């Protein structure tokens, strides 16, 4: 979401860090470029103006001009002010109430409320071990109730929508949650294409009926300043407690994330980072600020790995390599599954410190890689072909391509990337192997070009 803004800011600060001494003039020149970057990212003008004034006041002070590394000092100031702008620290859900704690989701149609309801249910049931009940009062959008019912079934979370009117559905779900000792009740509400009186009246009635502990505004991050205006309108009717920004894995410019806290006073509590039900991240301002400035986000990366990586399979592969056995396509497919669960290779690179210094071609290839297609190609192979890929020749390649819905060229590309991955694994076995691999990445990729995934 912040790639365009991050690239602009990093380009601006690169000029500053190359100077041994800063003056008010070159700081002003740099902040002028920062202002352009913020406005291009669709940050609200008053927010951008106030942000730059705070940065300028600190940047021309003694802490920077007398610093041994003045360029780095300015970057730290910008980082700190970005954190302040977005809310200092993560504000988690407040579920400290007599069960069931009711979470009400509101927002415009198409923002992703239904998917977010399922993501929240998974987040609370898996990470906080809560018993969650899902319900939908969206009786207007065709198949809205059925969509949430199917998502709940996949998650093995209980779903209940009994009744024809929103008020009766909510009353039944609340009573069911109380009698069956559920910890949390999540209510997915109806949306409209724009804010209107009918929707707000219905939401206000539901709000009064259930008295939620959390009222979350779900908003499409690609809506830009419209997201901020909509949040203010919903807050006037419902007293919002927080915001969930969806579709942040797309090409949104990031203005909503940087503006919404300052304009509405409501914290961003979660980011939707993909379509999968596990693609929901708690919003940590300091971590997001570090990503914007190319510093990585190691804490979130470690948390992703701890949640997503199958430790048994990882140990199995490590043991194979230790014994000198070959890394095969079955292992490669397992690695692709793990990467996909963590948001794809692009998502991993975004969190790695120093990844911004990789060549642009390498980063582009990583973010544009389609691991699902690679997995489909490997799934179309026989067990023998996965174990001994050298046997895959012309007719086998055509069969694999047809079975996976891809082209022969893609099968060839996969086999080439796999061969490179095998070489990487062999190098990682020895002392200093990881350091050598990172040196190759900084030099533009693996031998022969390309990226392992």
What does this structure look like?
The chain is α/β, with parallel strands linked by helices and 453 residues long. It has 3 domains: 3-86, Four Helix Bundle (Hemerythrin (Met), subunit A); 101-295, 3-Layer(aba) Sandwich (Rossmann fold), CATH 3.40.50; 299-442, 434 Repressor (Amino-terminal Domain) (Orthogonal Bundle). Helix content is 58%, strand content 8%. The chain has 22 helices and 8 strands. The protein has helices at residues 3-17, 24-40, 45-59, 62-65, 70-86, 113-127, 144-155, 166-179, 197-210, 225-238, 255-264, 285-292, 298-308, 311-322, 329-341, 344-351, 360-368, 371-379, 383-387, 394-404, 408-429, 433-442; strands at residues 101-106, 132-136, 158-159, 184-188, 214-220, 242-246, 268-272, 280-282. The chain has an 8-stranded mixed β-sheet with strand order 3-2-4-1-5-6-7-8, sandwiched between helices. Helix 2 packs antiparallel against helix 3 and helix 15 (329-341) runs antiparallel to helix 18 (371-379). The radius of gyration is 25 Å and the shape is flat.
